[in-house]
Amino acid sequence: MMKPLPGEGDVEVLVERPYSHERSPSSTSSTRHTRPTRPPPQLRARPYYRRWSPWIVSIAAVACIAVFLVTMYVNDCPRRSATGCAAGFLGRFAFQPLKENPLLGPSSATLVKMGALDVSRVVHGRQGWRLITCMWLHAGVVHLLINMLCLIFIGIRLEQEFGFVRIGLVYLISGFGGSLMSALFLQSNISVGASGALFGLIGSMLSELITNWSLYANKVAALLTLIFVIVLNLALGILPRVDNFAHIGGLISGFLLGFVFFIRPQFAWLNQRREPAAGQQTSPVKRKHKTYQYVLWLVAAVLLIVGFTVAIVLLFRGYNANEHCSWCHYLSCVPTKHWKCNSSATTCSTIQQGNTLNVTCDRTGFHKTYPIANATQDRANELCTQLCS
Questions:
Q1: To 10 degrees, the CA torsion angle through 119, 120, 121, 127?
Q2: What is the pLDDT of the chain when averaged over all its residues?
Q3: Rounded to 5 degrees, what angle do the CA atoms 33, 35, 41 make?
Q4: What is the DSSP pairing of strand 43-47 with strand 356-361?
Q5: Run of H or E including 349
Q6: The 3-state secondary structure of the chain, one letter per residue
Q7: On the CB side of 220, how many CA atoms lie within 13 Å of its CA?
Q8: What does the pLDDT read at residue 320?
Q9: Of the residues 2, 25, 130, 214, which has the maximum number of CB atoms within 10 A of its CB?
Q10: What is the C-alpha separation between 238 and 233, in angstroms, rounded?
Q11: Over 80: is that where the pLDDT of 346 sits?
């Protein structure tokens, strides 16, 4: 909540002066026909900062849902899966077996086909566009529902405050930053989801509070609340099947972007601009922003430019961050007695014999024969994922 000025609410009330050439009662009493009285002075209230109508967040949510439906249509589980589908009554939109995808969604092969982040294809296949497309894909209904609810609750409030341009830029750039971080650390798995962009919005809320510190009331309580939310969500990221590196990359990107895009002018400067219209210019000239706001803006902008440049260069040179950081993998998954963190790539040995395909999972040793003739590489990869799950 913004601090009101002393003795005022959160809006400024402007009173229009009556016309100076109106006649006084004494001067009009001797005339036979008096002029009609002027309307009373009007009170006009206007907020200190503009409020925007949110729409870009809603469009982003609709786009993610539409992309998921297209992905499920392309997946076509009844025709492609040899082990049955979950929710088969949905027909072509049925989900992969729960053992393969517990999030109620498509196969890994379909996600890769639709643009999931696959580091080998990004680096060796020069498919850098996957760093952007992966943030519009989701692994399943559960994944999609959680992300879209977070997007609506967080994004709409921010868009009302700062408008669609700045929120759209923070969302896209943070998602890109999350993809970069994920690609540098998780090179054996594919990655999808808008979580990096969502963490970017949360990070921008934290930096917005810091850079506009003097404008807020109850600032300490708001700061502690945001820190608690961030720590809680990052802690959930240590569970298996969650790409916490995308969360961390998006959070850092959004935190720096907040200093750049969410800087607000001071109340004194806003009042100074309005005083001349009311004929009340008495105070000395005020600066639009405080010195620390300019410093934070400059530092954040430099860190963003340098950080993204270095990360992109390292990625396309095939840099694997885990080789230089032996403990970093614990940031994404911590093994316990209840689950394991197996980040090794899923590979299988396949042999095509006439109308049958023999598949053996290299990690588990499981073997299965499928009645498939002339199986494509994508089909073999899909069967490998199912067998090794």
A1: 50
A2: 80
A3: 155
A4: unpaired
A5: strand 348-353
A6: CECCCCCCCCEEEEECCCCCCCCCHHHHCCCCCCCCCCCCCCEEEEECCCCCCCCHHHHHHHHHHHHHHHHHHHHCHHHHCCCCCECHHHHHHCECCCCCCCCCCCCHHHHHHHCCECHHHHHCCCCCCHHHHHHHCCCCHHHHHHHHHHHHHHHHHHHHHHHHHHHHHHHHHHHHHHHHHHHHHCCCCCECCCHHHHHHHHHHHHHHHHHCHHHECCHHHHHHHHHHHHHHHHHHCCCCCCCHHHHHHHHHHHHHHHHHHCCCCCHHHHHHHHHHHHCCCCCCCCCCCCHHHHHHHHHHHHHHHHHHHHHHHHHHCCCCHHHHCCCHHHHCCCCCCCCCCCCCCCCEEEEEECCEEEEEECCCCCEEEECCCCCCHHHHHHHHHHHHC
A7: 0
A8: 87
A9: 130
A10: 9
A11: no
Name the residues annotated as catalytic.
195, 247
CATH superfamily of 56-275+290-331: Rhomboid-like (1.20.1540.10)
pLDDT in tens, 43-77: 333 445 667 888 999 999 999 999 999 999 999 88
Across the strands, what pairs with 349? 360
Q: 60-74, 92-106, 141-155, 373-387: which has the minimum mean pLDDT?
A: 373-387
Q: At residue 154, does pLDDT exceed 60?
A: yes
Highest mean pLDDT among 88-102, 140-154, 361-375 belongs to: 140-154
- Taking a C-beta distance cutoff of 8 angstroms, is the pair 111, 190 a contact? yes
In the chain, what are the domain boundaries? 11-47, 56-275+290-331, 348-388
Instruction: Give the residue, 265 or 114, on which the prediction is more confident.
Output: 114
pLDDT at 40: 46
The 10s digit of each residue's pLDDT in 261-300 is 998 887 667 666 666 554 555 555 567 778 888 999 999 9
List Cβ neighbours of 159 (8 Å cut-off, separation of 6 or more): 52, 54, 55, 56, 57, 167
Q: Is residue 97 a contact partner of residue 75, using CB atoms and an 8 Å limit?
A: no
**Whether residue 240 has pLDDT greater than 90:** no
DSSP code at position 264: -
Q: How far is the C-alpha of 46 from the C-alpha of 366, rounded, in Å?
A: 70
Higher pLDDT, 46 or 305: 305
Judge whether 110 and 171 are in contact, CB under 8 Å.
Answer: no
